[in-house]
Amino acid sequence: MARRSEQMTREIASTYAERLRAIREQLGISQAKMGARLGVLSNLVSRYERSIQDIPEPTMRLAESFVALQHGRKKENL
């Protein structure tokens, strides 16, 4: 049972890592700039994106909010 839980945790971490990278690339910003927006160093963003370090849920929600803000700005410019 513990192994299954560990596997699920790794899969979730990998999904978060892929999503964080996709968000950063969608925004067209570097890891350093993403780190500044998240309040972390760029090397930590790199570790997040490579699933070396788990991404805290609040950090992921903050990253998701950047996309929402970007979409809101695009709508305002129409």
What is this structure, in a nutshell?
The protein is mainly α and 78 residues long.
What order do the helices and strands come in, and which of them pair?
Elements: H1 2-27, H2 31-38, H3 42-49, H4 57-76
Summary keywords:
single chain, 78 residues, mainly alpha, 4 helices, 79% helix, globular
Describe this structure in words.
By secondary structure, the protein is mainly alpha-helical. The chain has helices at residues 2-27, 31-38, 42-49, 57-76. The N and C termini lie far apart (52 Å). The model has no long low-confidence stretch (mean pLDDT 84).
**Average of pLDDT:** 84
Beta strand % = under 5%
What's the β-strand tally?
0
Written as H for each helix and E for each strand, in order along the chain, the element string is HHHH
Describe the largest sheet: none
**Counting H and I runs of at least 4 residues, what is the number of helices?**
4
Q: What portion of residues is helical? A: over 70%
Rg result: 14 Å
Distance between the termini: 52 Å
Ranges where pLDDT stays below 50 over 5 or more residues in a row are: none
Q: Which word captures the global form?
A: globular
Structural class: mainly alpha
